[in-house]
Design a protein that fits this description.
By secondary structure, the protein is α/β, with parallel strands linked by helices. It contains six helices and five strands; from the N terminus they run βαβααβαβααβ. It has one domain: 3-Layer(aba) Sandwich (Rossmann fold), CATH 3.40.50. Helix content is 49%, strand content 21%. Helix 1 links the parallel strand 1 and strand 2. The chain is globular and about 45 Å long.
């Protein structure tokens, strides 16, 4: 039922909570994982249009993705791919999920309330309104 799960990572401690849940779920469901992080700095947002060189942020994000995938591969026998998106996180999550034919999108919530959502935006809220596949949201540990 869930052949490929897109796991949206944001390089915060909440990723570890999300990965703990999703690795166990993927093992039970015999799913492949696609780890996605979306770089949203100035260079990442203008990378294609201005033909820019890769930024330090983008190199660090790739490193994080590869290290995270390597650790998960060592701990599980899951098939894991990585992808770095550039630009708007909700738009990239939805686009990659569709391109890669993912059956489920997994995200971590951060527990923002009102002011935090206004300041930081809500990727989950934007994704849930337009997603064509189920979404699994893992809340922060208390």
């Amino acid at each position: 039922m869930y052949r490929k799960i897109l796991v949206a990572l944001d390089t915060t401690p909440s990723d570890q909570e999300l990965l703990g849940h999703i690795a166990q779920f993927a093992s039970l469901a015999k799913s492949d994982l696609l780890l996605l992080h979306v770089a949203d700095g100035w260079v990442a947002q203008n990378f294609e249009q201005l033909n820019l060189a890769e930024s330090e942020e983008m190199r660090e994000d790739w490193r994080y993705l590869e290290e995270t995938a390597a650790r998960l591969r060592a701990e599980t026998n899951l098939k894991i791919e990585t992808r770095l998106g550039l630009g708007n996180p909700p738009a990239q999550i939805l686009q990659v999920a569709e391109q890669e034919q993912c059956d489920l999108i997994a995200l971590a919530s951060h527990g923002h309330r009102l002011v935090g959502d206004i300041i930081y935006g809500s990727t989950i809220d934007a994704v849930r309104h337009k997603a064509r596949v189920p979404i699994l949201v893992v809340p922060p540990r208390k």
